Recover the amino acids of this structure.
């Protein structure tokens, strides 16, 4: 009995260690990508178009930010599955492999949440995608696949919420188990600040097939948000997190404001119990009306008002 208890504790400790490592690696990768973009003088795509039609930009709100899950929150379906479809079309793996992805995606969309088995399976498949491939190659392919299979699957309602934070002078990051390079492409195409994602180990610019820590999933997302907040000087009480999944309750719980987007049954129950905001873009109904005070968080309201930012209820 004691041996069994010790083993369970050791396993929990190891899983927590891997989650912490994954979170720290993701925050480090996000910071590196942000600094690289600054050196290159890149602007988020869509920025010029917004500035031409909108009023004066809000002053930067450097201690508040927003964190958005991707799959079924920002994007319809699973980004890794869309990526897999694009890779299959390019003969990176077989159609039978894609069929397995399709089955897991169907279960995910119907059930609304992941399980330990699907996470483990996704981990193995993610490694098979990148092993032996160069980072440069996957970035190029990722750009193409986004245009082909992802661009038209963005939830306009969620994208509007992200834009609200940007208009208030806040930074916006995606947080996803998808490989960080693909997550960064999605963030850039949406005009967001950056992304936290799963970090794959590389050697001289080539993926080794190993992960740094583990998938950025569950508690690892919370560790990543905390680590990035420490690097960027964010006050997490003034930040907002968005997700559709009960698995992201740890991430939603570390910020001052949490919003359930297209929630699965588990998250909907948690959100109601904790009185979190709920928005559902899957149908015409609105599970809750959201205004500036609740979504931006009480601490961020002053900056939003000062900038003359208003949120139109959808």
């Amino acid at each position: 009995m004691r041996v069994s208890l010790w083993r369970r504790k050791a396993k929990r400790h190891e899983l927590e260690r891997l989650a912490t490592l994954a979170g720290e690696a993701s925050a480090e990768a996000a910071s590196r990508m942000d600094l690289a973009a600054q050196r290159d003088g890149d602007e988020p795509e869509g920025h010029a178009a917004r500035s031409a039609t909108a009023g004066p930009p809000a002053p930067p709100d450097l201690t508040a930010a927003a964190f958005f899950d991707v799959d079924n929150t920002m994007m319809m379906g699973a980004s890794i599955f869309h990526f897999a479809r694009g890779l299959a079309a390019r003969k990176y793996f077989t159609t039978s492999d894609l069929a397995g992805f399709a089955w897991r995606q169907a279960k995910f969309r119907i059930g609304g949440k992941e399980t330990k088995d699907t996470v483990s399976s996704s981990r193995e498949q993610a490694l098979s995608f990148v092993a032996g491939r160069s980072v440069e190659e996957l970035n190029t392919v990722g750009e193409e696949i986004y245009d082909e299979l992802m661009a038209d699957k963005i939830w306009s309602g969620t994208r509007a919420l992200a834009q609200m934070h940007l208009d208030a002078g806040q930074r916006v990051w995606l947080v996803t188990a998808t490989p960080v390079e693909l997550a960064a492409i999605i963030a850039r195409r949406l005009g967001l600040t950056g992304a936290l994602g799963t970090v794959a180990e590389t050697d001289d610019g080539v993926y080794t097939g190993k992960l740094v820590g583990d998938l950025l999933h569950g508690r690892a997302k919370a560790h990543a948000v905390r680590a990035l907040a420490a690097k960027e000087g964010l006050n997490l009480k003034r930040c907002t997190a968005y997700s559709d999944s009960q698995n992201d309750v740890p991430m939603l719980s570390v910020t001052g404001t949490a919003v359930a987007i297209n929630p699965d049954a588990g998250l909907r129950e948690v959100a109601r119990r904790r009185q979190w905001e709920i928005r559902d873009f899957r149908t015409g109904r609105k599970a809750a009306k959201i205004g500036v005070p609740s979504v931006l968080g009480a601490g961020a309201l002053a900056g939003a008002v000062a900038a003359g930012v208003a949120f139109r209820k959808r």
About this structure: Confidence is low (pLDDT under 50) at residues 46-53, 108-113, 285-293, 297-314. The chain has 13 helices and eight strands.
